[in-house]
Amino acid sequence: MAKRDKATGLTDQQMRFAQEYLTDFNASAAYRRAGYKGTAAAIANNACRLLATKRMQEYLQGYRQQVMETTTLSVERLAKELERICFSDPRALFEANGALKNLSMLDEDTARTVAGVELGDKVKITLWDKLGAIEKALKLLNAYPDRKQDAPAQTIVGVVIVPAKGSIAPPQQRAALEGQAPRMQRVATTPARAKPFRIPATGR
What's a GO biological-process term for it (predicted)? Predict the structure, then answer.
């Protein structure tokens, strides 16, 4: 029987799995790297079962807490970084005359929106993805818009129809002009008889 750690209750191999899982959060891959064998389906199933155990969850939670205590990471600080990128303005990178500012002269908020700088014949400055930051901020605030959108409201476009005389029955004609008739019924009409006329003979 494998020896278990007194503090965590996990075996050495299980602790190895936990450490591997924390590198990429891929349970199946971590299970393999920890030395477990089996088919792909068995590994995926066993990895999920091990990850869901109480002892494993307590160990992972303790590790996260240790990271929080030994680093300066916090939700508030990360949210502030997102805020800087979301509301960044590229005009802050330039002087009033259009010249690029020296990086050492950038204010704190603007400097933190810069992802990289390439120096050469021309200076190339890359900024962090603003739309990506906005998307992450919306998710952080639980305000991301639902992808499912209601069907757009029906828009009535007024069209004035001037029919030929006698080609549309009067009730339907009035409804069509008022924008209320989905269909206009045509009625048979009696073609008007052409009146004969004569061209008078001209005198010679």
Answer: chromosome organization
